[in-house]
Structure formats: structure tokens, C-alpha cells
Amino acid sequence: MGNNWAEEDLISLRERVFIHIKDLILEGEFKTGDRLVERELAERLNISRTPIREALFRLESQGFVKTVPRKGVIVADISEKEIIEVFTILSSLEVLAAKLAVQKLDDETKSKFVEYSKKVEDCLKNQKDTDFTPLHGELNHLLYSSAKNTKLYDMLSGLSDYIRAFAKTGYKNPGRAVQSMEEHLRIMEAIINQEIEMAEYLTKIHIENSRKAYIEAVKLGKKEK
Predict the structure, then answer these.
(1) What is the DSSP code string of the chain?
(2) Is there a smaller number of Cβ atoms within 10 Å at the N or the C end of the chain?
(3) pLDDT per residue as tens, the chain (225 positions)
């Protein structure tokens, strides 16, 4: 995102500020417990406090931040219970996305799955010092968009961002990263072959394995504090 924060288009500005602050949380610049001060953010972006306040309100409604008495707005934490709740929803929605991806598969989408299958295979062959995080995001986008359902895409993207914001270490575990790529590869193969039941089953297994990894990561993170 650029740094041109001119308030010529208020609607555009509101959205850009929201995405910018959210990205700072997702990228780890703002960590759990960090204060988000309206004045400081406004000065940083050289804009008024109003779009900052609105962005923080939206982020709070989505669970990314919370208001604490005498501290103000801080980046929220995530509990094991919340992870389980989110992954329960994520499991149902991703399974649905996989089913719709098979049902709505066309030549263009199929070629994308083939392309990304090759990317994953190449990464798995050269996995030393490989950061799978960007590719993981692209794979999620491919699956979600292939369902060709805007509402479903928005819900899945929001849930994925929520998990990514508060349990980053889960996917950075080298063993889990490789395992996850292998799971994605099998899911894509099932979609390419238009095997609905197999795609649903593999997606469910993938989400369950991810849930376990994230819970372990959160527990480990709390022990290290």
C-alpha cells in the first residue's frame, strides 16, 4: 500500500486505512498487547483521527483489537477455545469451498490448479530454507475464489486472517509447513480429478491438522512469555 493518504476520497481512505492497520497486525508489526493510539496512527499516516477511529472500530468488531479500561485499544489475544471455535467454522466453510470448486470447475480454473500443483511440487523438492507462507496464502485464495461465491470468499478470508494474526508460529513450524503443502497438493489433485468426496475429506483433514498445530503454537507461545 502506498503512503498517499490525501483525504480526497473519504470512502476510499476509510477502506485503505482499515486494510493498512489490519496488515500491520497480520505482518506482526503490531503484536498481541500492543497499544494502538489514534493520535499516533493519525500522525504516522498524516491524516485526521476520524478514519483511524473507524478502522479501529471495524477491527474490534472482527476481533483483531479490543478496548481495555485505562489502556485504550490494544491488539487482541486469542485463546485455545477461540481457535477451536474458528477452526470449527473454517472446516465447514473450506469443505464447502472445495465441493463448489469441483462442481464449478472450468478449464481456466483447472489450469490454475495444475499450475499451482507444479509450484507446490517444486517447493517440496527444494524445501530447504523455503518460506511457504506466501504460497500458502495464494493456495487459500485459489481455493476460496474457485468456489465462485463472493460471500463465502469474504467469510473464509476473514477467518484465515484472524487465525494468521494471532497464531503465526503455527505455520512457521517447518514440519507442519511441509505437511500442509503436501495436504494442499492432494486437495488440488482431487479437485482437478473432480472427486468431490475426496476433496471434501482431504480438506477436512487439512483443517484438523492445522487446528492442532495452531493450538500447540499458542500453548508454546504462552510458555515462552
Answers:
(1) --S---TTSHHHHHHHHHHHHHHHHHTTSS-TT-B--HHHHHHHHTS-HHHHHHHHHHHHHTTSEEEETTTEEEEPP--HHHHHHHHHHHHHHHHHHHHHHHHT--HHHHHHHHHHHHHHHHHHHT-TT---HHHHHHHHHHHHHHT--HHHHHHHHHHHHHHHHH-HHHHHSHHHHHHHHHHHHHHHHHHHTT-HHHHHHHHHHHHHHHHHHHHHHHHHHHHH-
(2) C
(3) 445 555 455 568 889 999 999 989 988 899 889 999 999 999 999 999 999 999 999 999 988 999 999 999 999 887 778 888 999 999 999 999 999 999 999 999 999 999 999 999 999 988 766 778 889 899 999 999 999 999 999 999 989 888 877 655 455 555 888 899 999 999 999 999 999 999 999 999 999 999 888 888 767 765 555
For residue 204, the one-letter residue type is K
In the numeric block, which cell numbers belong to residue 86?
474458528
Count Cβ neighbours within 10 Å for each residue of 6-30 and write b for 16 or more, e otherwise: eeeeeeebbebbbebbbebbbeeeb
Half-sphere exposure of 159 (CA within 13 A, CB side): 23
Q: pTM, whole model, 2 decimals?
A: 0.79
